[in-house]
Amino acid sequence: MFADRLLLKGIVYGVCAGLCWGVIFLGPQLTPGLSGLQFAVLRFLCYGAISVALLMPRWRRVCANLTIADWKSLFWLSLIGNLIYYTLVGTGVQLVGIATTSLIVGLIPVFVTLAGRHDVNAISLRKLTPSLFCAVGGVVLISWHALINGDKPDILTNVAGILCAAGALVTWSWFAVSNARRLAQVVSVSAHDWALLTGVMTGAQSLLLAVPVLGWQVGTHGNSEWLHFVMVAGGVAFLSSVVGNACWNQTSRLLPLALSGQVLVIETLAALLFGFLWEHRLPDSYEIAAIALLVSGVVWCLNCHRTPRHSPAV
Questions:
Q1: Using one digit for the tens of pLDDT, what is the confidence trace for 256-306?
Q2: What distance in Å separates the CA atoms of residue 17 and residue 267, rounded to the nearest whole number?
């Protein structure tokens, strides 16, 4: 019973994280005047500033519990899981659109689930196979549908966008696994503070890139445009980076890696929802079928992780 409560709590946090992260695919569409890298740097500058402000009152107490290994982990998690990942996402969105990018990235649950199959208390791959088939089937169906029915750019642009989305898939799958395992070791720091420390590190990295990446763009946009860019980047930073990352870190501590990977499908569904709203349309029958497959896969995986209830002996 207690295990099921933790399971439910972890899933709720995971759903909240996925909903928050869904907006990251919309941000680059709202700022067409910036490249994927430029919007990523601006977003993480905002993330860093917010994180510093929230962490400053207890900075010394939190940092006193960190080791050199922790700081190294924060550096690589921030660089690969934030800056590189989101640069690839933003570029992919601008080249091939929200649907195609979010659906390729939607294979993250499969990658993370497979990575966690040897962890302690992990469910056997045989039991998870139907769930994985549903998730892969849903992503393949909706990706194929989006590619053959969307506006097709030239082949080089299409290939470049797909490669960026595939790169985002690999980088964030690595982040999800590495971050979860690091959190299991860093018990002296709360999940929320770890998310803020990641923000501070990412902000510092973005600050080093700000001048070469954004400096030459200052004169090409008016004040009203820059205000728009900063407002969008700040909104995405707060919702996705601060709130979303804090919820995800709680999920990583409460759920087995294989199950937390499956919960990531909520991000894909949220991105699709925001994409449909952006395009002012409802999903068609193919998209509804693909979404049903994705949800079925998550429900199946959840059921596999439920604690069995034994009937009392008569």
A1: 766 666 677 788 788 888 888 887 888 888 778 877 887 777 677 666 655
A2: 8
* Amino acid letter, 252: S
Tokens of 28: 């680059």
Please answer whether residues 247 and 14 qualify as being in contact, where contact means their C-beta atoms are separated by less than 8 angstroms: yes
**SS3 state of residue 221:** coil
**Cβ atoms of residues 220 and 277 within 8 Å:** no
Nearest 5 degrees, angle CA 182-CA 185-CA 188?
115
Q: Which DSSP letter does residue 64 get? A: T
Contact 55, 201 (CB under 8 A): no
Residue closest to 132 by CA, chosen among 115, 146, 111, 116: 111
Q: What is the pLDDT of residues 122-172, one digit of tens each?
A: 666 677 778 778 877 877 786 677 666 655 556 777 778 888 988 998 998
Q: Is 280 left (phi over 0), alpha (psi -120 to 50) or beta?
A: left
pLDDT digits (tens, 9 = 90+) for 183-240: 888 878 888 899 899 999 999 999 999 888 887 777 777 788 889 999 999 999 999 9
Is the Cβ–Cβ distance between 106 and 275 less than 8 Å? no
* Angstrom distance (rounded) from CA 237 to CA 73: 21
Please give the model's pTM, rounded to 2 decimal places. 0.79
Q: Which two tokens stand for residue 64?
A: 């006193």
The per-residue DSSP string of 132-146 comes to HHHHHHHHHHHHHHH
305 Cβ contact partners less than 8 Å away, ≥ 6 residues apart: 7, 123, 255, 256, 258, 259
